[in-house]
Amino acid sequence: MLTATPMSWRIDEQVIRGEIDNRSPGKTTGTLWLAGASEPIRLHLDGNPWADLAGHLLRFTNPQPVATGSAMLDADQSGLVGDMTASRKVRVPDCSIEEMMRAAKAGQNYPWHWANCLYLEWFSHRNGRVVIETTSYELEIDAEAAWTMTADDEVRQRAQNAEALSRFVNQLTSAAGFDPHAGLDEVDDDDAPQSAAEAEAQRETDWMNQLLDRVDARLEREGIDIDEYDTIYMEERERLRQETGYPPEDDGPPRSEEEEQAWIDEMNAITAEAMDDMAAEAWKDPDETQRPELLDRAMDLGIRLHRDIEAWLPADATGEHPLREIVWGVQFGSVKIGGALGHDDDEEWPPDPLFAGDTLVRLKKARDHLRDALRGLDSADAENLATPEWRISTRREVSEILGEVQQLIGEVRAVLKEDDEG
Asked: What is the pTM of this model?
């Protein structure tokens, strides 16, 4: 079916047939016929595909289109070209999804083969990011290119595509919608709390960070053994509370014996319910626990980038080196994503209002770290570090994760706003 993910519309299943025409340099046009749509979609895009499609007319047919009752894309798809290529290599399983999952769980290999993947991406004024990604289409490309793209031209085009994605990510929550020609500096920042619960959660987090900094500084300054940590923690907590007036000392009027017993009974009931839930889940195989897909992707990217930069990082590189800033931004962002989403894909989403404030603070921190990674990429661009291809692909992956984090922030804020209004 036609889907709108936090980052894109993916329409490969709905396409009946289509064509992409880049025979005029700097302009990419096209027509798509979708199952269930009364009229075709027309593309009028600035920019060029990758070198394999640059200067060519590509026609494609989907052998098994799927109709959908969902709202369709706007017929006028004007905007910017993203990555467009028919030469991306992907691994395609030669077995069912169930067989593949069983093999992966058992640590065994499953049969697969390499295949060319058609990947068509664009950023429209009306719908934002749209993607076709498939290995099943029948492709037909004209024999001779109307013009030829140089290697330098392709690097510049891919950089422009990554920049378009970055701008799109930064405007996901903009009420005005996606404007691919707007600069990053024109995007309104939404770090400021937008509900009482968010403000309180942010205040608690900032206060706790300040407390932990004070405890660490005192331990280092006075050379106190770590065994004294709890004592130092309570002393510094009380001092900071007196200095800031937060959290309040008074917990409210004392409860009567009946109220105290009612509160104890309520807590016991909640605990008993939680224990019952845990017992009901005990039959599950721990190996079947699945991390949220976004967390998996962020963690994998952090590990891969750490390995990538070893070849380019000087032996005397400091923590401020742009390549370290990129890797650490992704890795620290992954930690915060895990803290916000949990490490089990069965976690409730969106979170209960009771926990939404804390979740939101963690997601905003993840966003800060991912933005640090993008700033590191800006510095790497300026200093020509690593390779252009690596910087471009890394920017794209970081931007996609950042965009999904931004979407989650919006979903949690909606929970808190509804709770405030209630």
From this structure: 0.54
